[in-house]
Amino acid sequence: MRKFLPLLVCLLLFAAAAPPAGAKLQLALLKYNGGGDWYANPTALPNLAAFCNQALGTDFDTDYGTVDVGSAELFNYPWVHMTGHGNVVFSSAEAENLRNYLIGGGFLHIDDNYGMDAYVRVAMEQVLPEVKFVELPFDHPIYHQTYEFTNGLPKIHEHDGEPAQGYGLFWEGRLVCFYSFSSDLGDGWEDEPVHNDPPEVRAAALQMGANVIEYAFKQ
Predict the structure, then answer these.
(1) In the β-sheet with 134-135, what is the strand arrangement from edge to edge?
(2) In this structure, how many other beta carbons lie within 10 angstroms of the beta carbon of residue 92?
(3) pTM of the prediction?
(4) Which of 27, 115, 116, 168 could serve as a FRET partner for 40 with CA atoms 20 to 30 Å apart?
(5) Neighbours of 140 (CB within 10 A)
């Protein structure tokens, strides 16, 4: 599987591939086992897709895809989002499938919705045992795309008052997984009545989400 091209080129190629009438490139939500609520934040990805369409000039379908971690369908999505509050379990076959997806050019954004940190670290070590999560410095390009975040990840929800931190898994110099911890970007992407976050907080969450997508397609 070839590496994904920069965002604009990728979208043009998708359009040229003659998908079914009305089909657009979708963001995807990762479905996993273990009992964690992988389905949390149901309005998050539609709002993020709509924001990127308006702010970045993308043409994402605002109806996101849902894909099992072990499914071959995973390779149809260049950008996949994973969230939840609890346990995460990958079978050996699922871990291998996700590994092949990431090594082959896919991108995974993990957003700790509170309580999944210990589990997701174990799961991702099963996927890519050769590499470890490293905290990204504030000058990493993911924080300096269309939107500037000079102090790194914005803090959306409290999460015990811990600082928001962005971690990455790198494969051959490419960031294949971005892990937002103690930030809760996905909550900030949700419809305003869900969490009643102030407009400036929701804006920061959406802008950082747009940066993650922009960086993933451009690197």
Answers:
(1) 61-68, 26-31, 79-84, 107-112, 174-181, 165-171, 134-135
(2) 9
(3) 0.90
(4) 168
(5) 16
